[in-house]
User: Which sequence fits this backbone?
């Protein structure tokens, strides 16, 4: 959501409500995660128009992602898929096998045909891997030798560097399998439930039902995704009946959308909001090295109030940084914190931070004043969290200054320039099945000559050898449960032991839909959204 | 006249070079790494140093800034503004593809604005302090004060959500043009009405107007053929500035109405630190502004031949 759009949303609320309520039921309609109505009489014409966000497709031949990512038009399918609970499930591959030291062998589903009628074979998978190799190798890190055709329906994939998380990464829609040799720019050919019809840059992409789909054939005959970048306009288009579904509804408009003939469809948490504490700062930014201060902050912030007031109940309290679903049963081992002002005060008292005349604590002549940096990915998305945190930290004697950076680039520049700030607020999304990725990227020790982004974060937040070991275990685990446990162990160090990460909320994905739209189930990660079960009633 | 035009064109060359230096310098000095953002947009959340280095080489971003500037300007003069890092499109093609949409919106908005402002401003001046004058001034004040995004949403709610007579957003039919053009036109009309009124009041107080009336010219001729023509110099200047600004992209209105014009494209590119697009756009928009200024200067000559004579006198 753009900054301007976020800013005007609150001001528009009354008008939007007025528009929504004309001749309709009062606000407060159903909010749902699924809308199964098997007995409903279906409309004769099953054509859906969706208000999607900005057109962010790359359209050059080498890295073309039209219909694939970030808007997944369900033209392509991946070898493995990501379930709404963040588990890896069969896709075009029915089974897979890890072959030490660094290879995954995939067995392809038989009888799958591309939209042009030709059968899917291992050669097509290899062609995709080879194409990604020419564009740098993707997240998995493939080169032109990575994919080896074993037989028509078996393919081995060996990343060019050791990468045991390749399986979890291959669920990402950017690894969608297209027909070998197809012109992916002009005529995308995949195996998905919908086939490409047309794409008009900045305006729309249209797909139609794949009559020969290998799975359950979709009820929808056609979907038109219209690119409408402004979230308020998407809601208005939904209210006007121009579209039947609007993606990424702003949380301020959620109640309006849930009213009358419309409904709000929400996902489980797929994104998060968290505070990271700078533990490697120097000079004025060294306060975060004091563990008592970090722990006190974690106990001072009321996550329940954040969910209710900042996220307007379109989120749930989070004790893990990434969505808990990806950690499976191991998620419960991460305890997190619940608000306790008394405990926070005691921690600070015991650490020698004494309250001054104005209520702000000080130690050795240094006031407990912290800077909170707000700007990733935009400052607006966090509003009014900073002011909220400011008030809550004041109660325990911490003076919080809010520093807003206009965008990600400015935020990262500040982070890279000596990590100028104590608390860093970020929102992130989990788009693949790799639970090790984000904690490893953000909190492992910097490596000379290593990845710039990893080092930028490591210079502010890295915990050292203990966490690096945990990250290594996560990276090298093979079984699903082992990976989840290793990732949970990383979370425990970050959240329960060192208080470097203070998770606040696991946020929902919000779709607005006409009440005639049935069986729209919101995936926590929008890039994995499926449309093949959706139906339209009369 | 030809010499006057040639002189004006030549005077624009150093300005154009200045714009190119500025465009390039701004992009170099801005924070952020376009390569990393582009890779992340390709679905690579954590690109490896090798991937970053390869793409940097591919885009020529590994060369020092002066070398990149020389290459860029050289290519620009041959019509090659590079490729968008974000979308992979050729920049000139991307701008050229979107510019007609923006130009259509801008021209319709300005014409519509003038169609409202000229008669209203003239009548308001002629009937100074009448009820109509007060209403026109109030309307102009309100029109100039309403933020365009607010007006846009109001128009959508009124005409698309409530009355359902116009579409909310998009660009596929002529009807899609109405609301965004009206949004921009109301803002333009407001300021142009005020300007027309004040310019007309000034002209109507001139001696030549009194002379015209004394000679027995009809009031309509005095107002339209004499006073208005002279008032048009100021109006043309402001109209040119406003048109140039709109041709640079009416970002907010284009975004709200999902109008796939140049403004929305460039704002998205700024967010992604898409240097080639930002540089190309600044150069492109700068060139458009220079061209419009030239056109306005030439309009002055038509409206007031003394401008050209003055130029000759200076040339002698």
Assistant:
């Amino acid at each position: 959501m753009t900054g301007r759009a976020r800013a005007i949303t609150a001001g528009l609320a009354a008008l939007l409500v007025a528009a929504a309520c004309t001749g309709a039921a009062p606000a407060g309609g159903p909010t749902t995660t699924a809308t199964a109505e098997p007995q409903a009489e279906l409309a004769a014409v099953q054509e859906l128009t969706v208000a999607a966000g900005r057109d962010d497709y790359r359209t050059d031949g080498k890295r073309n992602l039209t219909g694939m990512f970030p808007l997944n038009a369900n033209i392509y399918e991946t070898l493995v898929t990501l379930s709404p609970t963040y588990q890896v499930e069969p896709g075009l591959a029915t089974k897979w096998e890890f072959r030490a030291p660094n290879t995954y062998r995939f067995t392809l589903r038989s009888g799958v045909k591309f939209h042009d009628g030709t059968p899917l074979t291992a050669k097509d998978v290899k062609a995709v891997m080879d194409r990604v190799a020419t564009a740098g190798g993707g997240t998995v890190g493939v080169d032109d030798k990575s994919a080896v055709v074993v037989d028509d329906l078996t393919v081995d994939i060996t990343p060019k560097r050791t990468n045991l998380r390749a399986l979890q990464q291959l669920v990402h829609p950017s690894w969608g399998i297209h027909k070998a040799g197809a012109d992916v720019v002009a005529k995308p050919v995949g195996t998905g439930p919908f086939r490409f019809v047309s794409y008009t840059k900045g305006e729309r992409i249209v797909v139609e039902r794949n009559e020969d789909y290998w799975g359950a054939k979709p009820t929808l005959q056609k979907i038109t995704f219209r690119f409408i970048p402004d979230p308020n306009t998407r809601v208005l288009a939904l209210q006007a009946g121009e579209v039947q579904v609007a993606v990424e509804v702003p949380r301020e408009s959620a109640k309006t959308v849930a009213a009358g003939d419309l409904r709000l469809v929400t996902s489980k948490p797929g994104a998060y909001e968290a505070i990271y504490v700078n533990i490697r700062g120097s000079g004025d930014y060294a306060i975060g090295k004091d563990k008592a201060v970090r722990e006190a902050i974690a106990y001072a912030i009321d996550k329940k109030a954040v969910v209710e007031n900042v996220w307007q109940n379109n989120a749930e309290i989070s004790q893990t940084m990434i969505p808990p679903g990806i950690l499976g049963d191991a998620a419960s081992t991460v305890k997190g914190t619940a608000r306790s002002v008394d405990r926070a005060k005691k921690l600070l008292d015991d650490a020698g931070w004494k309250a001054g005349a104005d209520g702000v604590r000080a130690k050795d002549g240094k006031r407990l004043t912290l800077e909170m940096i707000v700007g990733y990915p935009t400052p607006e998305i966090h509003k009014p969290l900073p002011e909220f945190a400011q008030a809550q930290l004041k109660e325990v004697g911490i003076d919080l200054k809010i520093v807003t950076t206009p965008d990600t680039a400015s935020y990262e520049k500040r982070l890279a320039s000596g990590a100028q700030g104590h608390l860093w607020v970020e929102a992130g999304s989990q788009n693949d099945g790799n639970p090790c990725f984000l904690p490893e990227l953000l909190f492992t020790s910097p490596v000379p000559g290593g990845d710039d982004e990893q080092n930028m974060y490591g210079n502010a937040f890295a915990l050292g050898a203990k966490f690096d070991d945990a990250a290594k275990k996560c990276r090298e685990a093979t079984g699903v449960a082992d990976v989840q446990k290793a990732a949970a162990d990383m979370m425990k160090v970050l959240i329960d032991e060192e208080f470097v990460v203070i998770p606040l909320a696991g946020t929902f994905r919000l779709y607005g839909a006409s009440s005639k739209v049935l069986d729209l189930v919101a995936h926590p990660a929008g890039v994995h959204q499926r449309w093949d079960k959706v139906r339209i009633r009369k | 006249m030809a010499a006057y035009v040639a002189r004006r064109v030549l005077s624009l060359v150093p300005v154009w070079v200045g714009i190119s230096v500025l465009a390039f310098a701004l992009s170099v000095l801005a924070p952020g790494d376009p390569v990393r953002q582009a890779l992340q947009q390709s679905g690579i959340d954590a690109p490896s140093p090798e991937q970053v280095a390869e793409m940097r080489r591919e885009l020529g971003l590994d060369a020092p800034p002066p070398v990149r500037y020389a290459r860029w300007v050289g290519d620009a003069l041959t019509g090659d503004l590079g490729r968008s890092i974000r979308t992979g499109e050729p920049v000139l093609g991307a701008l050229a593809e979107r510019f007609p949409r923006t130009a259509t919106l801008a021209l319709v908005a300005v014409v519509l604005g003038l169609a409202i402002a000229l008669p209203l401003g003239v009548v308001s001046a002629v009937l100074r302090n009448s009820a109509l004058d007060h209403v026109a001034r109030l309307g102009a004040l309100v029109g100039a004060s309403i933020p365009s995004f607010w007006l846009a949403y109001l128009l959508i709610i009124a005409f698309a959500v409530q009355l359902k007579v116009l579409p909310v957003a998009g660009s596929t039919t002529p009807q899609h043009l109405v609301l965004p053009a009206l949004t921009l036109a109301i803002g333009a009309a407001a300021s142009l009405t005020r300007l027309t009124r004040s310019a007309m009041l000034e002209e109507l107080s001139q001696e030549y107007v009194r002379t015209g009336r004394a000679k027995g010219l009809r009031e309509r001729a005095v107002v339209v053929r004499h006073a208005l023509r002279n008032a048009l110099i100021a109006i043309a200047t402001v109209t040119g500035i406003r048109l140039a600004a709109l041709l640079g992209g009416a970002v907010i209105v284009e975004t709200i109405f999902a109008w796939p014009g140049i403004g929305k494209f460039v704002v998205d590119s700024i967010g992604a630190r898409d240097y080639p697009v930002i540089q190309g756009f600044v150069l492109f928009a700068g060139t458009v502004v220079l061209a419009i200024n030239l056109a306005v200067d030439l309009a002055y000559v038509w409206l007031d031949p003394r401008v050209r004579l003055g130029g000759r006198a200076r040339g002698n």
About this structure: The first helix of chain A runs from residue 3 to 21. Residues 13 and 318 of chain A are 28 Å apart (CA to CA).
